[in-house]
Amino acid sequence: MMTASSAPVRQSSVRAHNLALVLQTVANSADPISRAAVAAATGLTRATVSALVDDLIAGKLLVEVEPAPRSGAGRPAAGLRLAPDGPAGLGLEINVDYRAACVVDLTGRIRHRLVEAGDQRPVGAGSALAALSLLATEARRRAEADGLTVAGAALAVPGLVTGDDTVRIAPNLGWLDVAVGELGGLPVAVDNEANLAALSELGTGELPPSFVYISGEIGIGAGIVLDGALFRGVRGWSGEIGHLAIDPDGPPCRCGARGCLEQYAGQEAMLRAAGAATVADLAAADLSTAGHALGTAIAAVVNLLDVGTVVLGGIYAPLLPRLRDAIGAEIDRRVLTADWSPVQLRAASYGPDAAMRGAAGAVIRGVLDDPAGWLARTRA
Amino acid sequence: MMTASSAPVRQSSVRAHNLALVLQTVANSADPISRAAVAAATGLTRATVSALVDDLIAGKLLVEVEPAPRSGAGRPAAGLRLAPDGPAGLGLEINVDYRAACVVDLTGRIRHRLVEAGDQRPVGAGSALAALSLLATEARRRAEADGLTVAGAALAVPGLVTGDDTVRIAPNLGWLDVAVGELGGLPVAVDNEANLAALSELGTGELPPSFVYISGEIGIGAGIVLDGALFRGVRGWSGEIGHLAIDPDGPPCRCGARGCLEQYAGQEAMLRAAGAATVADLAAADLSTAGHALGTAIAAVVNLLDVGTVVLGGIYAPLLPRLRDAIGAEIDRRVLTADWSPVQLRAASYGPDAAMRGAAGAVIRGVLDDPAGWLARTRA
């Protein structure tokens, strides 16, 4: 079916569209790309491309680099790539046993990374956020010392978020209806940590368009990616895999129910079962109970959603070799279609940094999607 | 962001588009609607609308009806509505303990309904399909005796389907890799029964755009509707809720695992637990075990997908008053967000006919979406 004809397009929105088109063409190119090649890829004239590129360079979104010398004849054209010293994203995370901040530049590189370990539960939301705000200020100061401009901030939390800035509930932090407000002098977009981590894994370009990312921390969350986009659910509260019932008569959970996955495969449950003091000790422990519980939950996800790939992040990523047999056994036993279509289990690329990297990436994504907005803000 | 300009539009596809637009405008109108009102709603000229309407009437897709007499001045215009005696959909279903066929006309009314009770397991796929083919032939004969033209056929099965015509696995029927072929002399599109039932419930227009439909039969399936569209999963195998683990050490299931939902809340398990001989007897039985198991599975679905409405179909629909307390207790206990956003439990509108009605509806949907194709076929 055709759609109804679109509304008339104004000049300013044509420019905004073309700026984004040029910027994303450069961003999607593995190597530096010439203005002529951008023109060819976009269908815009060379003159238009050059004018737009000049604006993007002036706004510190693109840089022009000398090409590698070639042995053939002719002078090779200068190439464009994303600017490493323009806008940056400030990614923040608060989790049960640490708070963290990172600065990610337009090329996706982490430029600064600040992590403070420590139990966030006893201090309460106000103090935890105040301490995180100091960390954010320090990260921002370091970014600016590098000549970067922090374009925005986003915060990853292990809980359910409403309205872009309020943590509705984070059971493992003991937070209820916490409005985050500004951190480090910047307004902050708040999102679930598993959602943001899933987005950072999607950004690697190495995963199929549909997968489920499972973050193992003290809590367990899932980010569901369907057809290349995060699936958030009706109210943005999807992915609460940590509270799937593994055994209805199992041990009590902090959420009030019994036998939730977190009570078998959460970090504290795993440490307790192994008699281990630290996560590092788990690398030598028998993780069979956690693995079977995780496999049962993953089988439920695959039976319901029919995704073929599951990415294990957080503490699960380095432990996957020790968890794989038990998870695989439950998948083989419980997924109706496992015989035809084996489920791929993969360790996350980014480990414990995935969520804050995803938070910073969400800021960067906003700049790449709307460079005209960024240029207007920097001129103001 | 704008999208790239679309390819040139040919005259024939403009006509196809406008035919569908006019037909759907009439279909979406609660009352008969005049040609002038169709023109106003679509933005097409009256002359264009009249020419398209004449074609749709000639093709038996629309009829013109006399308006109800009005007391005011002026002659009221004749109204258009969908033709009740044009194309019809043949909906077929094979389930564990019955096979069935129905004919649904363009207005959505069931015109014929044929159900043969009987255990389909001992007879095997070939015999069951041969018997269903006879039923399909009889339904088609009755439709044609009414002056209807059967536009196509679709089959609902309690299992996983590949490639539109092959049942990959239907554990409760004992079917494995069954190619369906023609039934009643017609090619048949095969789909999962819960998917088709969910589509027929969506078609009532009384549900929010996102919900999960759960069909209770001997097996238990789910149809997941997100933002007004069926979510099928990567390979079309989503919704296998019947094999969610309720208790990992529970009774063995026909699928090979233990403690699946079907072993607590499937029809046979419910009859066994209640010491009942027929489904009708369940109306007076204690359904607590089934209700708690179903509630645990529903809590998992809501925690993962964040849908706010669950529709209970099949044998669950009439039993919902007796199941509601136990289901509700598990939702309250296990769904993290139940305090802010209670989950709505609703009985399905169509009961046991939902799946075959959805199958017939899929055929009707095809005609409404592409009336030009239907007109070309009837001319040929």
What's a quick, concise take on this entry?
Chains A, B: GO terms for molecular function: kinase activity. Chain A has 380 residues and is an alpha/beta fold.
Structural class by SSE content of chain A: alpha/beta
Q: What is the global morphology of chain A?
A: globular
Count of individual domains of chain A:
3
CATH architecture of the largest domain in chain A: 2-Layer Sandwich
Per-chain topology:
The structure is a homodimer of 380-residue chains.
Chain A: H1 11-27, H2 35-42, H3 46-58, E1 62-65, E2 79-82, E3 87-95, E4 98-105, E5 110-117, H4 124-145, E6 149-157, E7 160-162, E8 166-170, E9 175-179, E10 182-183, E11 186-192, H5 193-202, E12 211-216, E13 220-226, E14 229-231, H6 262-265, H7 267-274, H8 288-305, E15 309-314, H9 316-334, E16 344-347, H10 354-369, H11 371-379
Parallel strand pairs in A: 3-6, 6-11, 12-15, 15-16
Antiparallel strand pairs in A: 1-2, 3-4, 4-5, 7-8, 8-9, 10-11, 12-13, 13-14
Helix pairs in contact in A: 1-2, 1-3, 2-3, 5-10, 8-9
Which keywords apply here?
homodimer; Nucleotidyltransferase, domain 5; globular; five-stranded mixed beta sheet; WH_DNA-bd_sf (chains A, B); Arc Repressor Mutant, subunit A; ROK (chains A, B); Putative NBD/HSP70 family sugar kinase (chains A, B); 380 residues; 3 domains; kinase activity (chains A, B); disordered N terminus; six-stranded mixed beta sheet; ATPase_NBD (chains A, B); alpha/beta
Notes on the protein architecture:
- Chains A, B: It holds the Pfam family ROK.
- Chains A, B: Belongs to the ROK (NagC/XylR) family.
- Chains A, B: It comes from Pseudosporangium ferrugineum.
- 2 copies of one chain form a homodimer.
- Chain A is an alpha/beta fold and 380 residues long.
- Chain A folds into 3 domains: 64 residues, Orthogonal Bundle (Arc Repressor Mutant, subunit A), CATH 1.10.10.10; 117 residues, Nucleotidyltransferase, domain 5; 142 residues, Nucleotidyltransferase, domain 5.
- Helices cover 38% and strands 24% of the residues of chain A.
- Chain A contains 11 helices and 16 strands.
- In chain A, the strands form 4 sheets. Chain A has a 6-stranded mixed β-sheet with strand order 5-4-3-6-11-10. In chain A, strands 14-13-12-15-16 form a 5-stranded mixed β-sheet, sandwiched between helices.
- In chain A, β12 and β13 form a beta hairpin.
- Chain A is globular.
- The N terminus of chain A is likely disordered.
- Chains A and B meet through α1, β13 and α8 of A and α1, β13 and α8 of B.
